[in-house]
Amino acid sequence: MSQYIDIESLNQQIALESSFAKTLIEQHETVIVGQKQMMNRLLIGLLSKGHILLEGLPGLAKTLAIKTLATSISASFNRIQFTPDLLPADILGTNIYNPASLDFTIRKGPIFANFILADEINRAPAKVQSALLEAMQERQVTIGKETFKLEEPFLVLATQNPIEQEGTYPLPEAQIDRFMMKVVIQYPTQEEERQILRRNLDGSIHTPILPVVKPEEILKARKAIEKIYLDTRIENYILNLVFATRKPQDFKLKELVPLINYGASPRATIFLAQAAKANAFLNQRGFVIPDDVQNVAKDIMRHRIGITYEAEAENINQDQIISNILSKVEVP
């Protein structure tokens, strides 16, 4: 009974703490038509301190979405266009010699912002992509002998084109694993595209974005999310989903054995729990339910499962494998 009372009070606290999310979403909808899934994932990443890899064709409002979010919370935003001739110093910054003082001074790069859009990340070579790793994982940047902490909230949103592969450098598995989610962006519906057309023709597409949330509220929300209740049964469910990608035969999924080359990493387990908590928070709940886990499972695991040549030959992708796992693993 006492646990029930605790959950009730926690629900009330989370409902109060998460009220700003509705304001952010409303602000987003004044600028962007549709793409609610992308906005939801951006908020989950922001609240869970997780970076996001967006895969989608050009023109699907990826840049506009993160710029809108950054402006809405009075945060700084930098866009970095990844190109084959980009250097690590172009992202992190470098030491500049000052003839007047006969000394070196540090000029900080564009990574020093709250929101970073790494546009077409797979167009730059591995040494440039790896320049992001320290910032993403340790939330700090080392230039020469000095190390600088990055200001929170800090979110990296990287994009890549799923079709155009010529002149690109595929991201190594170790780097892909650093991204909390890989979100696949779809085309808008016909009705949504009609609204986009009308907004562009009547000029309402240029509606100014107003700051409605302070960064301090995001940091406070992160603390609140830590208190969200995760039952042992949900914990076991998360573990079973991840282990089903590694040992499918143990979960009556023998048909997946020849299709999976390697399963999801331990980061999948951690991120599934964190993202499920953030999803519960956005739904103003003080506890996690199986729907929260299922809601984020594909985005968390699709880039952490390696498929075999046999799977490719049969046109079976990671999303189909995850759907199969979700349908077979027992739900608490």
| Percent of residues in β-strands | 5-15%
So, CATH architecture of the largest domain?
3-Layer(aba) Sandwich
CATH class bucket of the largest domain: Alpha Beta
Order of helices and strands: HHHEHEHEEEHHEEEHEHHHEHHEHH
**What is the count of DSSP helices, taking H or I runs of 4+ residues?**
15
Describe this structure in words.
With 332 residues, the chain is of the alpha/beta class. It folds into two domains: 36-199, 3-Layer(aba) Sandwich (Rossmann fold); 219-328, Helicase, Ruva Protein, domain 3. Helices cover 48% and strands 15% of the residues. It has helices at residues 2-17, 19-31, 36-48, 62-72, 88-92, 126-129, 131-138, 173-176, 190-202, 215-226, 232-246, 266-282, 290-301, 309-313, 318-328; strands spanning 52-55, 77-81, 93-98, 103-108, 115-119, 140-143, 146-149, 155-160, 181-184, 260-262, 306-307. The strands form four sheets. The chain has a five-stranded parallel sheet. Strands 3-4 form a two-stranded antiparallel ribbon. A two-stranded antiparallel ribbon has the order 6-7. A hairpin with a 2-residue loop joins strand 6 and strand 7 (146-149). Helix 11 (232-246) crosses helix 12 (266-282). The chain is globular and about 70 Å long. The two termini are 21 Å apart.
Topology:
Blueprint: H1 2-17, H2 19-31, H3 36-48, E1 52-55, H4 62-72, E2 77-81, H5 88-92, E3 93-98, E4 103-108, E5 115-119, H6 126-129, H7 131-138, E6 140-143, E7 146-149, E8 155-160, H8 173-176, E9 181-184, H9 190-202, H10 215-226, H11 232-246, E10 260-262, H12 266-282, H13 290-301, E11 306-307, H14 309-313, H15 318-328
Parallel strand pairs: 1-8, 1-9, 2-5, 5-8
Antiparallel strand pairs: 3-4, 6-7, 10-11
Helix pairs in contact: 2-3, 2-4, 3-12, 11-12, 12-13, 13-15
